[in-house]
Amino acid sequence: MKLAAFFLLLLSVLHAGIRTVDIVPRSKSGQLRGVRILDQKYLSYKQIGELGFSELSDLTYDPKEKKLFMISDEGKLFTFYAIFSDKIDHLKPIGATRITREKGKKFRKWNRDSEGLCMGSKGGLLISFEGEPRLGLFDLDGQRIREYALPKRLRDAGNYRSKNKSLEALALHPHYGALMAAEWPLKKDSKKYQTIYALSGKRWYFTAEPEARSATTAIEVMDDGNLLVLERSFTNYLDPFVVTLKKVYLEGCAQESLCKSRVLLKMNSHKGWDIDNFEGLARVGKTRYVMVSDDNDNFFQRTLLIYFEVIE
C-alpha cells in the first residue's frame, strides 16, 4: 500500500511543476517600501498523491523539519519539503492526506471547511474551520487530537455575517496563545473594524482597509510580537482586486482597544499587479514570510506562492 502511494505521488510530480512568475508591475520593480519580494512561484500540481491540489486556504512552516504544510478548504493537508534563503531553494511535495476526526473517523463534507492553519505550541497543527466554527489540534498525519472551546461570541455560526465568513485566519502568539480573526466583522460589529480574538476571550481591534468587501484572510505573528495581516478586497471581475499586507501593533495595545496599524504593501489589479486570491500567510524565518493564493478550483486562477521580506 505504501509503495502504491509512493508511485502515485511520483506520478503526480512528473506531470506537474513549479514555475517562476512575476506579479509585480514593471513600474514598481525595485521600488517597494515595506516589503521586498524575494521569490515568486506558480504551483501547477493537479494532484499530489491521490488528492487534487487546489483551493489552498492557509499554510505554516516547521523550520526544524523544513516542512511547509498547506491546508485546503476541503480538509486536505499537503506537506512540502521546503528550504528558504534569499530564494526558495527547495520545494517539493512529500505527502498528502485528508484530515480526520479522532480515531481516523471522516469529517462529514459540510464539516471539513478548514481555513486557518498554524503550528501547535507543543507540536502538531492547529486548524480552524468555517461553516461550523471550530478549532482543533491535529497530528502531522491529519488526525484530530483534541478540540478547543471557542470564546462565546465565536461559537454560534449565527453571529457571523455568513457561514462562509467565519473563522478564516489563525496564528499562534507566544504570549496570547491561539489568535483568530473572522473573514468579516461579526453581525453586531461595525464593518469598519476587524477583531483579533484570543482563545482565552481577549480581544483587540484594528481598522479594516477602505476597499469594498474588505476581508481578513490570514494573520501571522511577527518577530516583535505584532501581527502581519493579509486583507483582500474582491467585488467582481470588473472592479479592482486589491490585496493588502499590513502590520497591526498588538504589543502595547490594551485589550478592547483599537490598535495602531500600518500598510506595508497594497497590490491592486488595476495598477498592474498580477495577483490572485491570497488567503494564506506563514513566517518561514526572521522577517521572512510566504503567502499563498486559493485558485478556487477555477481554470482561470492560480495557486501562487510568494516569498517576501518585511522591511522595517
Describe the 3D structure.
The structure is a single chain. The chain is mainly β and 312 residues long. The chain has one domain: Neuraminidase (6 Propeller), CATH 2.120.10. The chain has two helices and 23 strands. It has helices at 2-14, 152-155; strands at residues 18-20, 35-43, 47-48, 51-52, 56-62, 67-72, 76-84, 88-98, 114-119, 125-129, 134-138, 144-148, 167-173, 177-182, 193-198, 203-207, 215-221, 227-233, 242-248, 261-268, 278-285, 288-293, 304-310. It has a five-stranded antiparallel β-sheet, with no helix packed on it. It is globular, with a radius of gyration of 18 Å.
What's the helical proportion of residues? under 10%
Count all strands and give the number: 23
What is the name of the CATH topology? Neuraminidase
Structural class: mainly beta
Strand arrangement within the widest β-sheet reads 1-2-23-22-21
CATH class: Mainly Beta
Order of helices and strands: HEEEEEEEEEEEEHEEEEEEEEEEE
Query: For the report, how would you describe the main beta sheet?
Result: 5 strands, antiparallel
- From the alpha carbons, calculate the radius of gyration and give it in angstroms: 18 Å
Quote the distance from N terminus to C terminus: 50 Å
β-sheet strand percentage: over 45%
Counted up, domains total 1
Gross CATH architecture: 6 Propeller
Number of helices: 2
Mean pLDDT: 92
Low-confidence stretches: 4-15
Shape: globular
